[in-house]
Amino acid sequence: MGIEFSEQEKLFRLQTKTSTYQIRIDETGILRHLYYGLSVGTMDMGYLSSYQEQSLSGDIREPYERKHDPDFLPQEFTGAGIGDYRISGIALTAGDGSKSVDFRYSGHKISPGKYNIPGLPSVRGKPDEFFSLEITMADVISGLELKLLYGVMAEYDIITRTAILTNTGNTGMKLEKFASACLDMFNTKLDLLHFPGRHCMERQLERVPLDHAIHTISSRRGMSSHQQNPFLIVCPPKTDDDQGDCYGMMLMYSGNHKSQIEVDQRGNTRIVMGIHDENFNWNLAPGESFYAPEVIMSYSSSGLNSLSYNYHRLIRENVCPEKFSKQRRPILINNWEATYFDFNTEKILKLAREAKDLGIEMFVLDDGWFGNRNDDFAGLGDWYPNLEKLPNGISGLSKKITDLGMAFGLWLEPEMVNELSALYTAHPNWALQDPGRKPTLSRNQLVLDMANRKVQDHLYQSIATILDNANIAYIKWDFNRALANVYSNVPGANQGETAHRFVLGTYALLERLTQAYPEVMFETCAGGGGRFDAGMLYYSPQIWCSDNTDPIARLNIQKGTSYGYPVSTMGSHVSASPNHQTGRTTTLKTRGIVAMSGTFGYELDLSKCSRPEKDEIKSQISDFKKYYWLIQKGVYYRLSNSSFNDSFEAWSFVSEDKSEALVNLVMKDVHANGGLPSVLLKGLQADAWYQVEGTTKKYTGAALMHGGYTFPAYKGDYPCEQLHLMKL
Ligand code: DGJ
């Protein structure tokens, strides 16, 4: 396992536990993609691809042969303008105005450990887990050097990729597009699974058959977005949760992204993934390099649950900050849906005391504690306490909360500013805005120019001052609008770079803060899950999954999210019923079960809860603590997709050693005379006996997996069940 190069065959073999990835340096020096899929050992897969003469396509000249036609060749990365008419990974204008690029192999290096990408988050590589391959390609005419980097994490069935472009010539160039990875596949007839959505309804799985057209998954909002997540899966039509080949590609990036999937004239598929090229224009001066964000790829031969497992494990262990995956995270109460902007110290302390009595461990003070912030028209940017609401400031309040025996957390929205703020009055040119044009407002706010180092320094100082003067265990880092008027007022700024420099600026600030305050846990958020991506997860082990806290809406949001991201990353809370976003009424039990399949917390006015409800909350908290590691580290299975039933959602967590499982079912609809809901459980030990906790019911793993577990007939609104199975 790892990476091997055969000089004789000119063949790179990248081998993970179950997959093989092969690359050949061919006779023209082009880096040919040979294969990605189920492990084929040392078999040379070159027989699958060969040059073929095709009328009306270009021919490579060195060495010239009419059959050297790049338009049909599976390649590791593309050139531009040289006769490959499929989607390209690169576009640029050289100093002389030319736009063609022709990369040929010039060297390679294989090394243990993981490469780093300057300025960008990437999968954390423990030295013994990774092997890296760096292949250098050169375009001799322009002086461009392309490095393709591959990281092989064999045990995790993960291959990471990125690309670095360096101008080794004497004249400047304008880079107009530069993808992170290109994947050419021979498989015909693939489905595309992707995760579109909207505010309050993020990551709704869509599955479409690929056809002879180009599908684009993208964001131009300056954030990875509610609308299209930078993650996709391709698989043959027969693949489902439990069986079949599937390939995932996830971009570790929080800004504008674009993935295109093209089925060419011969039925082969090309996927190109990277930063969005619209309005992207990077000055690549002589000697300078451009670093593309990382793509995390995984393959599974046994269905989508298993592909999800590969991503879950990797993100938990090698993307999120390590410290927070090793310790149990606190159960929190957030005051947003309890008070919105309308609070004072007494109200907050009352809520905190009630929460403490129920066993809640951390109080999070949300929006409205700073500047002149009494609604969403003013205050963003002024990160000092509103003394009318909090006479003793954040340090006084945090002390009172920690004296109660709870941790204290605080909301911030660092990248934003209101026009009605001291910060904007002092530095109007720190906001993104075009000269002479009134910038577009969204939620009454503007976006700060994170590309401006002065803005980064100011935010660092403001946040550090808060952290240094109060006892803060957690920061909720919000981001409540998309970018518009993407114009940096830094003198000499090249505006085609602003959107990417914005993301680099945010990462730089997060990096500084998380390095300086490693004890503080960051939960990122963007109007809910508008920046739910692996880039953000590198700094924050959890992300507020959606502003929609309705448990029934959350079923699809959390399920869609689960294809790529583990439940340990999904911020989810029990909120009031009727729900504030949908008006739907659900039981506390249903709200609890859904929120437990996430980071778990509460977000409601506890003073409105009855005594029995408070007792139920106490028992939810004790259940969550009991099942914490099973939920957070157990293998997650989507169960309902394989049943003939769309009236419920079911999912489970099974411990790695298969000794216990937690099975969850929520009825979305109940039907008169509708039959009993039944699900096939997964991941159990076939020949072991399991007992359902609190009952005398015993079943073999085989029975539960192949016969299924039958639930009783339910009545009422959105009933649910949670079963704990213990191996006997
Ligand atoms: C949007 C977040 O998603 C909410 O949870 C809350 O923090 C509000 N912003 C506050 O403005």
- Shape category: globular
Evaluate the radius of gyration.
27 Å
How many discrete structural domains? 3
Structural class: alpha+beta
Provide the low-confidence segments as ranges. none
Into which percentage range does the β-strand content fall? 25-35%
What do the pLDDT scores average to?
Answer: 96
Number of strands: 39
How many strands, what sense, and barrel or not for the largest sheet?
Answer: 10 strands, antiparallel
Structure description:
By secondary structure, the protein is an alpha+beta fold. The protein has 3 domains: 10-37 and 76-319, Distorted Sandwich (Beta-galactosidase, Chain A, domain 5); 333-544, TIM Barrel (Alpha-Beta Barrel), CATH 3.20.20; 638-727, Sandwich (Immunoglobulin-like), CATH 2.60.40. 20% of the residues lie in helices and 29% in strands. The chain has 13 helices and 39 strands. The strands form 7 sheets. Strands 6, 7, 8, 9, 11, 12, 14, 15, 19 and 20 form a 10-stranded antiparallel β-sheet that branches. It has a 9-stranded parallel β-sheet with strand order 29-28-27-26-23-22-21-31-30. The protein is globular. The structure holds (2R,3S,4R,5S)-2-(hydroxymethyl)piperidine-3,4,5-triol (DGJ). (2R,3S,4R,5S)-2-(hydroxymethyl)piperidine-3,4,5-triol binds next to loops.
SSE topology sketch:
Layout: E1 2-6, E2 11-15, E3 19-25, E4 31-38, E5 90-93, E6 104-112, E7 131-139, E8 144-153, E9 158-167, E10 173-185, E11 191-196, E12 206-209, E13 214-219, E14 228-235, E15 246-251, E16 257-263, E17 269-275, E18 282-284, E19 289-291, E20 295-300, H1 304-319, H2 322-326, E21 332-334, H3 336-339, H4 345-358, E22 362-365, H5 393-403, E23 407-412, E24 416-418, H6 422-426, E25 445-447, H7 453-468, E26 474-477, H8 498-516, E27 521-524, H9 534-537, E28 542-544, H10 551-562, E29 570-571, E30 573-575, H11 588-596, E31 601-603, H12 611-633, E32 635-638, E33 648-654, E34 660-667, E35 678-679, E36 689-692, E37 698-700, H13 701-707, E38 709-710, E39 720-727
Parallel strand pairs: 21-22, 21-31, 22-23, 23-26, 26-27, 27-28, 28-29, 30-31
Antiparallel strand pairs: 1-2, 2-3, 3-4, 5-10, 6-7, 7-8, 8-9, 9-19, 9-20, 10-17, 10-18, 11-12, 11-14, 13-16, 14-15, 15-20, 16-17, 24-25, 32-33, 33-34, 34-39, 35-38, 36-37, 36-39
This protein binds (2R,3S,4R,5S)-2-(hydroxymethyl)piperidine-3,4,5-triol.
(2R,3S,4R,5S)-2-(hydroxymethyl)piperidine-3,4,5-triol (DGJ) binds at residues 336, 366-367, 411, 478, 480, 525, 527-528, 544, 547.
